[in-house]
Amino acid sequence: MEISVTFLLTGCLIQGVFCGFNINLPERVEALEGSCVFIPCTFDIDQKYEQDLTDSAKRIWYKGILYQGKTTVVFDSSSPDTGLFRGEIFGTPTEKNCTIRFNNVEQKDKGSYYFRLETNGRLKLSYPKTIEIVIIDSPPKPTVSLFEDQEKVKEEMEVMEGSSVNLRCSTKIFCSSRPAVLTWSSSPEHLLKESVTQQQRQNETELISDLIFTVTHRHHSATFTCTVTHQLQKKIMKQEYRTLHVQYAPKSTSAHVSPSGFVLEGRSVTLSCSSDANPPELNYTWYRDTEEHLKPVQTGQNLTINNTDPTHSGRYVCTAQNTIISKLDLSIYTTIYIHMVKMFDGELFFEEW
């Protein structure tokens, strides 16, 4: 009867019809040497064999390809401790579950595997579909991605100051019974301690750790590193990092005068303005503070006044602007004073201003 059922299944497959027999499992799965491999699997049977299927049915895994040379039993649910593989099969036969975990896989375990079902009745068959197990000797690096407003940031991790972002680290789960550990670090170190929310979760295939925070200009050029630690016969650690690029308006605008101190009448004086911003290309504008309003004097980072006289005394205002500021914002400024002195018969006289 076993042969007739198997031939019936094969004949249906040739005609493109499954006759109620089908199996769902991936074509390929990647396993880390020294870890375990998890194979999700479910099966169906023809309705006329439903009465044969009980929880006493054997669920057997073979290494090899059905009808193509030698095959080897690697796991038998009726004697799980005697096969070539040690592991655990999940669910029950009546749930039509063939999901299995093989422990401590090695390079010699790579190859094709297929599933067989044996009941106490007429139903005894092997499903011809195989899964390929690939063994890797070193785990991959974790993946670090940046999300802004739920959208993945693609351009060089560049975000705008004030935006809420999600920095996500994910790594593949090779063995749920030996979960990997994800940890974050940053340079500068203090950034992880300032208003950062950390969330971690996992699904069947991935372990995910999120850093959620609001971006400030202090995050510009900061580096965030995610480390994954795999607990095998020995600890294996892999790292990936990302550097944030933050666009922000001018900060810490400042000005200084050269020469410093009081300016001798008739000499020249240079006022210089500087600011911190990204993009760093800045437009500077100088204003003279008059009794009525601020009067534009000159654009440019430096303002030089030659042949000074007392009329040049007073308060000067410098504003800085980049592409983040679409128009001049007089709240982003710095001020500087020029104090004039005269020299008469070798003595200095202060001008009032």
Q: What is the count of distinct domains?
A: 3
CATH architectural arrangement of the largest domain: Sandwich
Strand content bin: over 45%
Give Rg in angstroms. 37 Å
Provide the helix percentage.
under 10%
Distance between the termini: 114 Å
CATH superfamily annotation of the largest domain? Immunoglobulins
Largest sheet composition: 6 strands, mixed
CA-based shape: rod-shaped
Mean pLDDT: 85
Q: Figure out the total of helices.
A: 1
* Extended strand count: 30
Give the C-level CATH assignment of the largest domain.
Mainly Beta
Briefly, what is this?
The protein has 353 residues and is mainly beta. Helices cover 4% and strands 49% of the residues.
Describe the protein.
It is found in: Membrane. Belongs to the immunoglobulin superfamily. SIGLEC (sialic acid binding Ig-like lectin) family. One of its GO terms (biological process) is cell adhesion. Residues 142-237, 250-331 form the Ig-like domain. There is one protein chain. Strands 2, 5, 6, 9, 10 and 11 form a six-stranded mixed β-sheet that branches. The chain has a five-stranded antiparallel β-sheet with strand order 13-12-15-18-17, with no helix packed on it. The chain has three domains: 2-136, Immunoglobulins (Immunoglobulin-like, Sandwich), CATH 2.60.40.10; 143-243, Immunoglobulin-like; 249-350, Immunoglobulin-like (Sandwich), CATH 2.60.40. The radius of gyration is 37 Å and the shape is rod-shaped. It has one helix at residues 2-14, and strands spanning 22-24, 28-32, 37-39, 42-44, 58-63, 72-76, 87-89, 100-102, 111-118, 124-126, 131-136, 143-148, 151-152, 158-160, 164-172, 181-187, 197-202, 206-214, 223-231, 235-243, 245-258, 263-264, 269-278, 283-289, 294-299, 302-305, 314-321, 333-338, 340-344, 347-350. The protein is mainly beta and 353 residues long.
